[in-house]
């Protein structure tokens, strides 16, 4: 009995099954890759140097990525900050909703996060504020949500139901039902191990193991790569590896639209 269960499990993960939307089907040979880059905010008068070097590098390599923006930065930023973001949007980078405050606090010694603990109405307010600010300051409708710390609960799912402009949910970890299109996390395939520290060998091992996935959403934090040059160099090595493997870089919304055909 145990052997059968194990085989079924292995088949699900390691053999292409045409009906499984997460596994490559016949004719497809490589996963698509989404660079999930987190935590754009307004600092030092413009855009953090870590972001600037990462985006300049990706543009020079003709690689598209994504930018998770913290909504409150759109209340503080200058026209130059807004223009920088609009230019990236025009380049093809997807700007996505990474919450409003990216904050956490405690209530009766229980940790609360923006999307873990607060009521559905409060979570809706955070999401909607960032949506509105992006529309007002950038003229961009955000199509994708990914939570700070990737921490969400059932109230997040309820709040998102009232935001039809958002179609995609990155790294949903709660079991609450949702109508959003999910782009899941594969914990073994990441840019950073641990968070903030790019690691090429661990990335490569994860990639080789999960390259039968239809899409790999790999997370990183450009602001953390600027102080230690080896971190940025490792990110460059990961991108060069993916380019050499001829993966197709995409964005959540582009990927989602392609699945609707
Ligand atoms: Zn974040």
Keywords:
alpha/beta; TIM Barrel; 5-stranded parallel sheet; 3-stranded parallel sheet; 261 residues; binds zinc ion
Could you describe the 3D structure shown?
- The protein is 40% helix and 18% strand.
- With 261 residues, the chain is an alpha/beta fold.
- The protein has one domain (36-259): Alpha-Beta Barrel (TIM Barrel).
Please outline the major beta sheet. 5 strands, parallel
User: How many helical stretches?
Assistant: 9
The secondary-structure class comes to alpha/beta
**How much is the radius of gyration in Å?**
19 Å
Proportion of β residues?
15-25%
Number of domains: 1
Spatial shape? globular
* Average residue pLDDT: 92
Helix content: 25-40%
Q: For the record, what CATH class applies?
A: Alpha Beta
The strand count comes to: 12
Briefly note the CATH topology name: TIM Barrel
- The end-to-end span amounts to 40 Å
- Give the H and E element order: HEEEHEHHEEEHEHEEHEHEH
Distinct small-molecule ligands in the complex: zinc ion
Architecture blueprint of SSEs:
Elements: H1 2-14, E1 32-40, E2 42-43, E3 46-47, H2 49-60, E4 66-69, H3 73-76, H4 79-91, E5 94-97, E6 104-107, E7 110-113, H5 120-138, E8 144-146, H6 154-161, E9 168-170, E10 181-183, H7 200-210, E11 215-220, H8 229-244, E12 248-250, H9 252-259
Parallel strand pairs: 1-4, 1-11, 1-12, 4-5, 8-9, 9-10
Antiparallel strand pairs: 2-3, 6-7
Helix pairs in contact: 5-6
């Amino acid at each position: 009995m145990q052997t059968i269960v194990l085989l079924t499990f292995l088949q699900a993960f390691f053999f292409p099954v045409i009906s499984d939307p997460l596994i490559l089907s016949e004719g497809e040979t490589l996963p698509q890759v989404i660079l999930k880059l987190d935590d754009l905010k307004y600092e030092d008068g413009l855009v953090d140097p870590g972001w600037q070097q990462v985006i300049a590098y990706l543009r020079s390599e003709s690689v598209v990525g994504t930018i998770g923006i913290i909504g409150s930065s759109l209340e503080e930023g200058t026209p130059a900050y807004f223009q920088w973001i609009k230019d990236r949007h025009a380049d093809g980078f997807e700007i996505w909703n990474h919450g409003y405050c990216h904050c956490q606090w405690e209530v009766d010694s229980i940790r609360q996060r923006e999307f873990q603990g607060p009521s559905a109405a409060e979570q809706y307010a955070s999401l909607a504020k960032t949506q509105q600010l992006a529309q007002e300051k950038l003229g961009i409708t955000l199509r994708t949500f990914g939570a700070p710390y990737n921490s969400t609960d059932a109230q997040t799912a309820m709040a998102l139901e009232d935001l039809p402009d958002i179609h995609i949910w990155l790294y949903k970890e709660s079991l609450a039902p949702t109508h959003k299109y999910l782009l899941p996390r594969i914990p073994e395939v990441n840019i950073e191990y641990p968070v903030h520290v790019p690691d090429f060998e661990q990335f490569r091992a994860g990639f080789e193991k999960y390259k039968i996935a239809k899409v790999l959403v790999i997370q990183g934090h450009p602001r953390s790569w600027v102080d230690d040059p080896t971190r940025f160099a490792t990110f460059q090595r990961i991108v060069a590896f993916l380019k050499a493997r001829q993966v197709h870089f995409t964005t959540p919304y582009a990927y989602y639209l392609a699945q609707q055909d």
